Task: structure prediction
Amino acid sequence: MQKFGPARIYALVVGGVLVAAGVLGFFYNTSFAVGDAVERDAVLGVLDVNGWHNVVHIATGALGLVAAGAAARAYALGLGVAYVLVFVLGSIAGDGGEILGLIPINTPDNILHLLLGLAGIGAGAASGRAAAEAPGRA
Result:
């Protein structure tokens, strides 16, 4: 196993940033309202968040920090696919919409989700190739 392969770096960096973003988000909005009552505030005036959005960031980030060892590749690929799906759902909801009536979304959120998703898939794929090509590996 590589000490700091692409998937492990992704899990550590993205995991840490997501936890920090989730905590920071609670300084902007702590609402857990759902449906038509979904509230939102923009972190740093850019990314829409509410309590649900913050919890998702903290949970997925913490999972990345835990998975940064043996499960880093699975985390990178899994989160990558999940964030591409979130991008698709967010694009359907549109700027200022909500995903599943819970999580507020805007265009900058969608762009960030797409970039995180593609980076995760890329890191996971790169880690798979690197492990297969390592000397002494079958």
User: Anything to note?
Assistant: The mean pLDDT is 91. The two ends are 13 Å apart (CA to CA). Residues 28 and 44 are 9 Å apart (CA to CA). The chain has four helices and four strands.
